[in-house]
Amino acid sequence: MTEARGFRAFPVRSRRRHHTWWGTEWIQAMEDTAVDSGLTKRGRRIAADGRIGPITVSPGRVAAVLDGACQTAVTVEALSGNAWAALVAEASVQSGHLAALLDGYLPHALSGLVPGIGDLDAQCSCDDWGNPCQHAAALCYQTAWLLDGDPSLLLLLRGRSMEELTAAIAEHRANPPVCLTDPDDPTPTTLAAEAFARPVPPLPEPPPPATEELRLLSIEPPPGIDAGALYGAAATAVTRARLLLAAG
């Protein structure tokens, strides 16, 4: 089971102005859904003022106590089975992806780890009506600082670990899937390489030219549209289509 990790409180004046792309995306996911931008601005100041206690990162949750009283948490859903399989497949394409993550960099190919708009849920014991409140916003900013230094924390937040990812990549490379199938659809799926290798079948014979008299369906025109003009435009379109078919 993936274990929680604890981090010391950031000291006063720990403001960070430059973020990694994944730290920036984390903050964007919070700010773009904020009800009150004033609360997020106050949260940014709180993050820099050293009012947040030690931070605990656990599967699906990052939590801290602010000002010694407000219990604040930000939650994010764990990766689904399909999302995890897609992440493992992407990470298996190049060995450099895993090496980069171990070295403290998150490749864009693994962007599925980063929460998007609407993926973060704030909880706090304060009386603020905003979502997130200033305390949860502050926690989000400091969490981004942690993610800047260690993007593997995104794996922990998503309910996984580096050990699981490493093992899954090794398994994927040792036993690559023959084809991808929908578990709800028993019909086998053809690999793309196999499909492209097949010869192109001949086109079917063109339909015989129309010889009967032109007849259009009677359709009630919308309000404000001249019925005669609509019929004439349809007749012109059908006639041109017939000429194009006849000409091959």
Automatic annotation (TrEMBL):
Transmembrane segments: none annotated. The keyword Ribosomal protein does not apply. Residues 109-144 form the SWIM-type domain. Keywords: Metal-binding, Zinc, Zinc-finger. The keyword Electron transport does not apply. One of its GO terms (molecular function) is zinc ion binding. PANTHER family: SLR1429 PROTEIN (PTHR38133:SF1). This is Putative Zn finger protein. It comes from Kutzneria kofuensis.
